[in-house]
Each structure stands twice: as structure tokens, then as C-alpha cells.
Amino acid sequence: MQEPKRNGNGAGGVGVYVCHCxxxxxxxxxxxxxxxxxxxxxGVTVAREYKYVCSDPGQEFIKQDIRALGLGRVVVAACSxxxxxxxxxxxxxxxxxxxxxxxxxxxxxxDSWVHTDREAATEKAKDLVRAAVxxxxxxxxxxxxxxxIDPKVLVVGGGIAGIHAALTxxxxxxxxxxxxxxxxxxxxxxxxDKTFPTLDCAACILTxxxxxxxxxxxxxxxxxxxxxxxxxxxxxxxxxxxxxxxYIVEELCLGCLECIEACVYKQAKVxxxxxxxLGKRKPIYLPFPQAVPQVxxxxxxxxxxxxxxxxxxxxxxxxxxxxxIDFKQQERIEEVEVGTIILATGFQPFDARxxxxxxxxxxxxxxxxxxxxxLVNAAGPTGxxxxxxxxxKPRTIGIIHCVGSRDEHTHRYCSRVCCMYSLKLxxxxxxxxDAEVYNFYIDIRAPGKAxxxxxxxxxxEGTHFIRGKVADVYPEPNGTGRLVLQAExxxxxxxxxxxxxxxxxxxxxxxxxDAQEVRRLFNITCSTEGFFLERHPKLAPVNTFTxxxxxxxxxxxxxxxxxxxxxxxxxxxxxxxxxxxxxxxLEPNTAYVLEEECSGCKTCVPLCxxxxxxxxxxxxxxEINEVLCKGCGVCVAACPSGSxxxxxxxxxxxxxEIEGVLAHA
Amino acid sequence: MSEKPKVAxxxxxxxxxxxxxxxxxxxxxxxxxxxxxxxxxxxALDFKRHDxxxxxxxxxxxxxxxxxxxxxxxxxxxxxxRKKSKLMIAFGACSHLGGIPGLANLWDRETIFQTAxxxxxSTVNPEGITPQPRHRVDGFELTLPGFFDTVRALDQVVEVDxxxxxxxxxxxIILAAVQTLLSGQLPPRGAVLAPxxxxxxECPRKDSRPEKxxxxxxxxxxxxxxxxxxxxxxxxxxxxxxxxxxxCEALCLQGNMPCTGCFGPTxxxxxxxxxxxxxxxxxxxxxxADEIDRILAAIPDPxxxxxxYSLPTSRLRRKRPAAAARAGEKIAA
Amino acid sequence: xxxxxxxxxxxxPRIVAFFCNWCTYLAADLAGTSRLKYAPNTRVIxxxxxxxxxxxxxxxxxxxxxxGVLIGGCHPGDCHYQVGNYKxxxxxxxxxxxxxxxxxxxxxxxxxxxxxxEADKVxxxxxxxxxxxxxxxxxxxxxxxxxxxxxxxx
Lengths: 665, 333, 154
Prior knowledge:
The complex is a heterotrimer. By secondary structure, chain A is α/β, with parallel strands linked by helices. Chain A has 17 helices and 34 strands. In chain A, the strands form twelve sheets. In chain A, strands 10-7-6-18-29 form a five-stranded parallel sheet, covered by helices on one side. In chain B, a hairpin with a 2-residue loop joins strand 6 (134-137) and strand 7 (140-143). Chain B contains twelve helices and nine strands. Chain B folds into three domains: 6-101 and 150-183, Rossmann fold, CATH 3.40.50; 109-148, no CATH class; 199-300, no CATH class. Chain C is an alpha/beta fold. Chain C has a single domain, classed as Rossmann fold (3-Layer(aba) Sandwich). Chain C has helices at 24-33, 55-63, 84-101, 119-136, 147-153; strands at 15-20, 42-47, 68-73, 109-113. In chain C, strands 2-1-3-4 form a four-stranded parallel sheet, with helices on both faces. Chains A and C meet through helix 4, helix 5, helix 16 and helix 17 of A and helix 1, strand 2, helix 2 and helix 3 of C.
């Protein structure tokens, strides 16, 4: 036995605290019987049951018992340790014991919530409590490791979430690296025309923040760049960033755009990404007028110099002695050290082609909502005039809600923003074209601040609402070129067929195609729908299961701009809290070699993915670097002579748990 | 009183190698014999069971018992000697761990009899006679010891104070153990009287093992010409050294053969085979289930390999008893 | 003797489950928050990584009366510790062979990759395993000492 390193020697008996969690646990598990059973287990001094052990009075019981009854160990049988292990360790510590003289039993998530048979659930609870009591008696006092936090922060993704998080941190005096994959920051918000429900112009509220990023002394902005590798751990991440060549020396480009004018292509011929192909650009281009940075980019796929090497290079000529154009520019690799990371990698719109009967890609009159955002935008490809692909102005418009949302064939979840942006588009389209606008909806979801009012306003403006899911979109048979929307109006109970000139698909939000790769890169998890998984849906909505990595915006799930900005602020605050604490306490669950006992067989050395184990020639023994060890325990399980041990997960403790769950009387 | 302490030697299910090991002490045996009074040693001295029975309880300082417990007679003698001895010493791998005879736990009595008395190519037994505990001949009843289904180590039958490991224990280990016992400076009860570090610690080939050795193929010693100074695992030959208590000075390795594990696990390991398996499997250099299986197929007999000496003292102890399997079927039916 | 403990009227398999902290344990938590219902026969022991599961733990569980052992880890490529689950896989493949040699049916030891979002898989795997082990019947490795006397008397 090690000598205790902190308060309390753990010599006293075990206190067991069974939580009712209201009726969450007590509704299925007989908590009285369980507590009575626990009281009779060897080594148990006291066993209590209480409505909410996590509440202040609940924790007070623990602290008082430690003092009054001289408890040496504490077991709380309540919810998942992921939720309240920290809470109860703290209570244990405040009671005067080493916080690791504590073990938690997951009665709620693993028992009462998943079983219906009261007797079986109570028996299971007894087994789990018995195992915990046996285990905790072997617990050792431990010290948490403190590691310093590198104050620099990495923000990945330059949409509104990343921008807001980066600015918040930078304004607080922290150094921020903002990495954006595209040649400009701005993200999806930059493509929107106006924002609901206030109808402010998206660009007007976004572009000042974009330029603030560019000019902020604390922000290093790397656009056209991607994170390719992440090593390390909370407080001490080492991140590798690939900076793709834009063939422009960023520092030398003034953003005069003369090169675009001078390009040998007299006409813009390449479908332009920012306008979703509704407009055209040249091989050398600025994604959109307010792009940040104001630095052009050359697309090697279409640039003649790249394709043939025989271009007159009028762009270089006009750039003159500014020398900003560099056809030989190579990809660059940057390595940065940061303490925390905020992921704000956003979403992608649902691909409307996946629902063929809506005719997107088949009928020219069918548009996605994002395309319409560009059409109604004054800086868009049509200068803000709503003109169909055939050049006509639509007189009737149908908006189909829930495209790729609330649909068991595509995504079951609600994308949260489509109802509201559909209302906004209905308003804008009506305003611009005076067309009849029909909304086909399942139900209108307008739960935000001033959202319902906006819905009423749009309805009063004369927009039509038809409750029914559109089942088919087909051309009007008599060759008018119009499209018929067929839906069952569930309010009237009849099938409606409405001919329109323009169909707008309110496409949902989905996880980006590479979300899985990104998640692996950052060692976090995804939820079922593919969005990044938060640590707790309510209590830790911007944290991930990897300490020091936070989430902001739609990479975590669909949300609107206010929620995105709020979450970005929260993520920034979480990062700040870590940075300002200057150090972080790590779980002490590291492995260690028993030096005297180690035979130096080297079995463990190649098994450690973090190279934390080295063979020390001088001693001819293995040694584990505690700082590098992440506590997986692979080496412990593999050590053939049992000479590696793991704090918090000692063999002896796990054996006690095994025996405990099986030692039913 | 200057009377020398009395000791007994006894053998149960064993090969006789442990008796040889005592003789292997050579002239040093005289020191041992000089220090103690051997009152029972069936291999060497003509004392009978009733001589032991006549001793007062606890009259012996120690009994050195080798061999596993396979028959009723062995169990009776183990109990008798336990009662008469202050210290019961499990001597050698069979009484310490179950040993080679313990591998019989992969079968049951019926199968063993069937093989030994009927099926083996060298057996001539046209009448199919198998040993019976009782047999009447000419009005007399003859008895044979009963034969258990399961082989046990000594401590699964009686309490054991100390263990001297090895198949067989080396002279050095025996002498050190005897000196410890006679010194009166007794280690904690239940100790194995050998170093508590794995064999690699004292293996002359230790330095030749690469720091990051992964395993891609396994070969058996007869399939390769083994280099004499290179770690056998590094040559693809499964060696139990990393999972086996040291103290033998790597005798097998000195004979260019792999360690097979006779000293048993260290005190920190509950199941030698499981630990050896874990270490070996962890180092298989593949993440593909089929390829892993292919590589590991070169270990034809995992139980015989990882539990060569320790099956009866392993967590599973024996192949699942047929009775248990049948009971399972009954309920399932 | 094996028959001394009468077979329980209704056999309820006891399954010890070793779940990794980052994927399968969280999936089991999610099954709870999603209020999925599944068989109450498992007892989960949390480990940081499926690679921490020492084959000794599995054998200990069987020896102490478990009828089945379930190991849950992150999907290949998703291990929180990069490659710990592959170590679990390697050991599992060999351990299962060893168990077969020891007369223990391979359905009694199961390794499953269950990510944090696969609550439904926790439910499906547990229910399926419970039924398969139920069909196999009790393992009954715990042999009381008297069995040795009985063996000889037989």
C-alpha cells in the first residue's frame, strides 16, 4: 500500500449513497431495498438513499458522514459517471478524503432507464453496488496531474461560428489561428441575402466581422488551408496545417483585382462556386466582392498557363512590380502549437438530387433555397432580379419545406432553420416579383424570438400555406413549361395540384461529407446523424469527449445564426476558461512500470501508440513517460509478468469488480 | 535440544524428475542430509505409511511433496503429510501448478482410460480391462486408488506454505530454498521461493531482442535452425520467458530451446497462460481478423502452449466438465 | 458435484461486459437517455479502452460464474487511443480458440465494435447475446470441491 498523499487515509469504512433521481431510478429500482442491501455488505459503514444525491443536501450527507463516521471510501449509485463523477469526487474531497477514494455506480443510464422488470433491475443494481463497494476498498489516493495550457487557440472553419469564436478570443487577448478551407472566410452566411426574422442584410452584419478578423493583431488567418494532423492533448496540441497554393503571394496582393480584368479570358466562363454555378467567373478570381482576405486565387484547373504553359500571362503583366502572381507556388506545411481547439466546420446543404421526384437537376424551374438566396441578392448573378433560367420572371412560386429533413428516407431530424428561411424567401420573392407564393409544409416551426410574429406577418402578406408534403413535381402536360406541385392538403383532405413557374426546395442541413475524417483527425465522436457529438446535450453542449476540443455552429447540429453565434461565444468562453486557468488537471489514470519487478522483456514498448514507453538501456527496464501516457491500459493488459499497472484501473480493482458483480448470494 | 529437524520427501503424480533433482544436488546433498533427519522418502528409504501415521502431528519440520494430485491415494498422503508437517512445501511444477500431468485436464477419466487401456497403438488388451477401484479375487478384495476426473495442484488439496518451482527445480533453487527454510527467516507464507521477475531478466539473449519487436509468423523449434545468441521470439519461436518466473538461469535457452513456462507466473499474475496469450497476441502485426487468425494458426495448441505446466491452477482449471455441458443442454432443451 | 446445485427454474444468463469509456460505454449511456429497453442480464465494467481488457479478466469472469463475456470497443479506425481496439481484436481471436479448446462455446465470448452513437446496437447485441447464451445454457464452471470425491465414488 502506498502512503496516502493527501488528506484522509481511506482507512475507514465505505459509505454508500443510493440516488432516487426523482423517479428516474426509484421508479424501477427498489432503492430502499438496495440501500438496506448495501448496508449489509462487508466494509460498509453506512448506506443511505436520497432523492437527489447530486443536490447540495445530498452532497452534504456525504461530507458529514465522512467527518462524523470516519468514512474512508465513498460509493454513489446514481447516474452515469460521465455526468456526476466529478461532482462526487469533489464532495468526497471536501469531506476530507482523497477524491479518488470514490466509485460511481451507473444505476440510471445502465439500469433503471433500460429495464422494465423491477425485480431484475433491483438485482442488477445490487450486483453493481456490490462490485463498486469491493472495488473502492482497493482504491489508492492519487494526485491529478497538472499540465500547463498553451494559451494559443486554433479555430477550424471560418464561417460565422469560427469568425465569432476567433474574434471573441482575440478580443480577450489570446492568439488565435483561424484555418479556413476555402479561399475566403464567411461560410454559408456570406451567401445569404437577408436573415430571418429581422431581415437584416447578411453581408451588412457579417462583412464587418470578416474584416475585423483580417485586421486583428491577435488572429493569424490561414485561408485555403486544411488541418492534416493533430497530436498531443489538452493544453498541448501540435497541429499540422496544409496551406494549399493559391498561386498568389498573399502578402504582395493588394486586392486591386486588375489581374482579373486583364485575364486573357475576356468573358467569365467558369461556373462560379459562390453563386452555386448561377454566375460565372474567370480562372483568376475573387470568390465574392467582400471576400476576406481580399486576395485573388488562381484555379489551376481552368487557367491556360497551368493547362498549356503557353498563356500570355496578361495577369502577371498587369500586376507588374507587385509580383504577387506566382505560378510555381507550392503547398506549404505549417506546424503550430495550441492549447485548445474550436471546431466550427459547419454543414453542407442536403443534396436535392437525392429526391428525384422533386426534379432538381431535371427541370430548370427547380431551385434550392441557397440558389434563391443568390438570386434575390443584389450582388448575386442576376443583380438581385429574380429571373428564371429561361430569363422570365416567375408569377407563381411553390416552396417545398422539409427537403431532406423529417423524412425517413433521407434524414429523420428537423433541420430547424428551413421553415424560417422559407418564410423569409417567401417574403423576399413576393416583394421582388409580386408572385403568388405557396408554402407546402408539414407544420410550421417558428419557436424563436420574434419568429411566430414573422410567420404571421408573411401570412398576412398573402403567402399561401398548404399543409401537405409534396409527393410529385411534374411538368404541366399542355407544354406551358410550368411545373405542377401535387400534394395532399391535410387540412382540406384533398389532393391539390398547383402549377407554378418556380419551385424552391427548402433543403435541410446535413453533416459535411468529410465529417467522419475530420472527427478522426481530432479524435472526437459523431452522433448518429453524423454531426459532431457534444459531451452532454444539455450540460456540456460545446464540449467534446476530448478535453480541450470544443464545438461551435452547425458541425454539432443544425442551428440558426443567433444560436450559432451564441454557441461560438460559449465555445470561446470554454477555451478561455482553460487558457486563463493556465493549467489543466488530467485524470491520473496513467500506467506505470514496477521498476523492481520489470524483467525488461520489451513486450510493451511497441504497443504504445504514443511512444510513451521506452526501454532504458542503463537499467534494462521499461519506463513510462507519465506526460505522454494517455491511460489506455493496453500495455498493462499485455505485460506478461504483470509488472505494469494503471492508476484507477488496477488489475486488482477490476478483478474485484468482476468478482463483485458475480458474487450474488 | 540438538535434535535435527525431521523432513519428508514424497511424490504424487510426477515423473520422478524432482527426485532426480534432489540427487542432482551432488555433494551438496550431504549438507542437506547433514542438516536434517529424513524420516520418509519412498524413492530412497524404506519407511512405510504407518511410520508416518505414527508421528505426532506437526512432528515434521517440512514435507517436500512433488507431483500433482491425480488419485485418491495421493490425496490421502497429502493430507496425512500436511497434518504431520509444520511446513508443506510444494516441490516442482506439478505440485506447484499441476504440471505436465495437469494437461490431462483437457480430457476426463473415461477418455483417458479409453486411450491408455484400449486405443493406444501399443496397448494389447483384448478383454478391454480397465482399472477398477475394487476387484475380488479368490475371495479377497483388491483395491486400487481411485482416479479423479481432474488433476489438481497440491494447494488445491491441502494448504501449502511454500513453493519451489521448476520442472524440475534446479539445484541452485533447491539449495536456496532449503537454506531459507532452515534459517528460520521465513518469507511470507505462500511465497514461491524464486525470484519474482520474469525470466527475460536473467536471459543471456535479452539484449538481442529488438526494442520494437512485432510478430508476423510463428515457427516451432524443429522447423528452424535457431541462432544460439538471439532472442527466440525475435526468431519467430514462441518463448514463454516473458510470462514465466525466473530463477532457472534460462537453462532451456542455454540449450537453445525456448522457455516453456515451468516456473509458473510471477506473483502479480493470476493466470500464466492468459497473460502469455495476451502478450503474444498483442504483438501480432496485423489489424485484420483473418490475417491475425492465419498468423496465430501457427500455434497449433494454445492450451498446451500457454498452460503447459499450469492448467490445473489456471482460472479455468480444466476443460469444461462434460456434466456441466450436459446440464446446459438439459436446460436449453 | 455438478448436480448438487439444482438448475434454477428459469435460467438467466449472467453476462459480464467490458465497455470502453469512449464508445461503447457512452453508447450504453445513450441507450439509457433514449430509454431503449433491453435484457437486464449484463453487468458493465468500465475500462478506458477495449485494449485494457486482459484475457485474465475474461477467464476470471467465466471462472466466477459468468455465462458470457462481452467486450465492447470503438470501431476499427475510431479508437480513442488510435489502435487499442486492434490489440483487443488480436487477443480475442486467440482467446476464443483457447476457449474452444477448453470446451467453452465461442458464442460465450463476444467482441463488438459499438460507437458512442449506436445505442440501438447496444440493445441489439445485448439482447442477441443473452438469447444465444440462454440457448447454450449455464456455463457452470464453478465446480464445488466435493466434485472430486464424487468423481471417484462414481
